[in-house]
Amino acid sequence: MKQFITTGILLLFLSACNSPKTDKIDLAGEWTVVLDSTDVGIQEQWTNTAFDQNIQLPGTTDDAELGVANTLEARLEKPQLTYLTRKYAYLGAAWYSREINVPSNWKDKEYILKLERVIWKTQVWIDGQEIPMGNNSLIAPHYFDLSTYLLAGKTQRITILVDNRKQLDMSVDNLAHSYTNHTQIIWNGIIGEISVEALPAVRIANIQTIPNIASQTVLVKLHLINHTDKAVEADLSLMASLKGDSKMLEAKHQVIGIEKGSSTATIEYAMGEDCKWWSEFQPAVYQLEAKLATKGQMESRRSVDFGMRKFSREGSVLTINDKPLFLRGTLECNIFPLTGHPPMDKEGWEKVFVTAKAWGLNHLRFHSWCPPKAAFEVADEMGFYLQIELPAWYLTVGADDKTTNFLYAEAQRIIEEYGNHPSFCMWSLGNELQGDMSVLSKLMNHLKNEDPRHLYTTTSFTFEKGHGNWPEAGDDFFITQWTNKGWVRGQGVFNSESPTFDKDYVKSIEGMTVPLITHEIGQYAVYPNLDEIDKYTGVLQALNFLAIESDLESKGMLDKAADYTMASGKLAAILYKEEIERALKTAGISGFQLLDLHDFPGQGTALVGLLDAFWDSKGIITDKEFSQFSAPVVPLLRFAKAAYVNQERFIASLDVSNFSDEDLSNKSIKWTFFNGDKIFASGNAKVNIKMGYNHQLHQMDVDLSQINQASKLRVEVELEDTPYKNQWNIWVYPQHNTAPVFGEVKYTRHLKEALELLAKGHKVLLNPDWKKIKGIEGKFVPVFWSPVHFPKQAGTMGLLCDPAHKALASFPTDMHTDWQWWDLNINSTTMIVDSIVGGKAIVEMIDNFTNNRKLASLYEGSIGKGKLIVASFDLSTKLDQRPVAKQMLLSLLEYMNSTAFAPTEIRNPESLSKHVLQQHENKAKESVRSIY
Question: Which residues share a beta bridge with 689?
Fold first, then answer.
């Protein structure tokens, strides 16, 4: 059996698309199936008792509850924590069969079977007779020519073998999203359209459209088939119309000669002076209909959607129709937890794109897979720029010729099936590919010659030594998380550098000659939302969520779960905002790709989204709030830091990122400082905002001396008479020039001394040297990606506190981590307080879901006659240079010297020395890259 479909034969099969529905048999419905994991095969009795199990197709064996039933229980271990659990799993050959009745009026026609999407390999029999060529694709329909096997007017049996076993090693650890159980599952079945179509012997097999906005024309390339015994002459007509508009453009007619076999014809079609160009701002989709009339043959018709657009680049700037473009994107990793496979209809994809648009995005990257036709159709209509990838994520590129040949074949199928869609703008050969990079370069150059409508890159980042930090030769764009000059995403910045909002990545991309897209930015883990459990009503069980819920319940912590989700989610949202704004502030960066706006259920339960796996909001932040900093136009503010003292001035540069489709002239830009609900300061200016990044349009200079108590201020900036606005928080503390007044409070860094003072009935603030106590490394950022997938990292997920607690009365904070906490978190060790009986955490640190320990950096309790607060962040070093730490100390002292300080008893004080504050020489903080 031949393993790959040649281009010519593929065109034969593609002619089955978009022909009159009266000449098509829909094979959706009830089939019978036999599972054959040991490859016994079906050699006899093709028509009766061999097939005794019914199944609905389109569908999967998971839908039909066939295969091996799950026996795993909800436990905090692998594989339960690795990904969602299939209720029924099947891997191997499955034989699907049913009867088919070919109409008697289908004589003298050719019959093409279409199976829209399958994993991975198919073979077909008619009445027990094998069709000699099988199919092998993960991203395109499987087509079979049944012309010499089906008989008009006769009832026959069609049998389809589907084998979902791994055919080639191009999905490392089965992580590529075309072949994986981490997001999509490795299902067996057939989804999408299943049909047999009758076609004339002379026909249009495929149409490719190449738009030219300069000349307002489209070059139409027709692939023609003539299966008669001689060359023929045919009348060809082309006519285009704007979808949604009944008006037709002028038709073009031409008589052409068609040789026997396969041939091509190329015709230029004029779109007219009123032609509309496709973009996110005007997603104008045209339909081109081609008709081929040949004497003695049924008329052949074919229609395709296309758009008049030019997706290109000018140096290091992406452009759409010669205007600068900035991609605001997220990944789509084949995550559909009810079915375990992608939707095959437009309705299923509308939820994805409508939600993404509401959250300010204009771009999706399909990570290591290519979606079905319905996804492109919705993206076309909504004006989304898509990045498609070959179904590849592996580390041995070039080592196996069969795999390389398969990638060439899959690429050709992508061109033929999806290449016309205007939303199909960018093409990467796979995710984080490694191996012989020259093999990828050769494939990329081949594709550039085959299809110039897209921009290409060899790989979406790579860890291959000597590569990945600068574009490969021939790349049209470059996707990376760092260059040879520095990071271009916050993973390498936000924890290691004190918060500053006047930085960008300009130095990291100096000399870049192609557009740079930041790779998979974010990956900030959010604590699981246990309310999501009830949503899993399909083929997958959320054993990971159930195990976490059970663990929390057993530890008496279940009531904390919702707060953990909200607090960790708020921190993630704050970090995503700064990730995006730094990219926007960097002239030369052309976009970002989030990982992810929504949750990733695999790779160790990587719940990094502000939305869940169903594209529903977790309630952490609204789409309107998010789209303030993710929109075509974003007001930006450059300022030095998050925390100020009131003897300083707030100085900021007001910038605007304008990637709309026009300059914004003579616009009024207004800024307002709020202290609570009261306006503290305001101003405005008239500015001209060109397309692209606009730096230093206006400067703010605000005197902070009027702020007499510790306050959180909010700065709002808006472009008047537009929907565009943005906001930031800063914290202002009074300048304290004298040493803190301890009053009744005894301060010590030593537990032994603290216990002696407590025994005498004193109030004690115990602030041990954080570098010498056992615990968890203090961090500002939360878990990266997943604590299961990357276990070599400090595993906390931000803080949780009660802002109304009297200990924080003079330390303004929300219930979650914000930028003012950076200094305290970095200069700390998180205490593990599981062993303490009694007392209470004032500031909790949220543990990752694999451990669910009780953690704290600020804890209170009474011991004997004394009262204690333990603070495991540094409240003693260089306080004159650390206003946040000084303000925290002052707030704690105010509380401890008041009557409100009445903590509950710690009933086992020995736990402090045995467990919580055990002496330990902490090792140096690990580097950011060490988790890999």
Answer: 664
Nearest to 225 by CA among 287, 288, 139, 297: 297
Segment 572-581, tens digit of pLDDT: 999 999 999 9
Nearest 5 degrees, angle CA 454-CA 460-CA 465? 135
For residue 41, count CB atoms less than 10 angstroms from its CB and return exposed for 0-12, middle for 13-18, buried for 19 or more: exposed
813 Cβ neighbours under 8 A, 6+ residues apart: 712, 801, 803, 820, 821
| DSSP character string of 348-366 | HHHHHHHHHHHTT--EEEE
DSSP labels for 763-789?
EEEE---GGGB-SEE--SS--BS-TTT
**Which of 61-70, 243-252, 807-816 is predicted with the least confidence, judged by mean pLDDT?**
243-252
Helix (H) or strand (E) holding 428: strand 424-428
pLDDT digits (tens, 9 = 90+) for 96-153: 999 999 999 998 899 999 999 999 999 999 999 999 988 999 999 999 999 999 999 9
What residue type is 861 in one-letter code? G
Q: How far apart are CA 631 and CA 649, in angstroms?
A: 30
One-letter amino acid at 809 equals A
Query: What secondary structure letter does DSSP report for 254?
Result: E
Degrees to nearest 5, angle at CA 754 with 752 and 759: 100
**Total residue length of the chain:** 932
What is the C-alpha separation between 612 and 529, in angstroms, rounded? 8
The string of DSSP letters for 816-882 reads B--GGGHHHHHTBEEEE-TT--B-EEEEEEEEPTTT---EEEEEEEEETTEEEEEE-B--SSSGGG-
Question: What is the rounded distance in angstroms from the CA atom of residue 161 to the CA atom of residue 169?
Answer: 21
pLDDT tens-digit series, residues 17-45: 444 346 899 999 999 999 999 999 865 44
Q: Which of 270, 203, 277 is nearest to 240 (CA)?
A: 270
Pairing between strand 678-689 and 692-703?
unpaired
DSSP state of 369: S
The average pLDDT across 897-909 equals 97
Residue 673 has pLDDT above 80, yes or no: yes
Secondary structure tally for the chain: helices H, strands E? 12, 52
Does the pLDDT at position 436 exceed 50?
Answer: yes
The two structure tokens encoding residue 70: 């799950």
Reported pTM = 0.94
Distance CA 362, CA 383 (A): 7
Question: How far is 717 from 700, CA to CA, in rounded Å?
Answer: 11
User: Tokens for 539?
Assistant: 């083929």
Q: pLDDT tens-digit profile of 442-467?
A: 999 999 999 999 999 999 999 999 99
Q: How far is CA 237 from CA 203, 250, 307, in A?
A: 13, 10, 19
Output the pLDDT for position 43: 56
| Edge-to-edge strand list for the sheet holding 252-258 | 252-258, 232-242, 286-294, 300-306
Q: Which residues contact residue 578 at a Cβ distance below 8 angstroms, ignoring those fewer than 6 apart?
A: 490, 494, 501
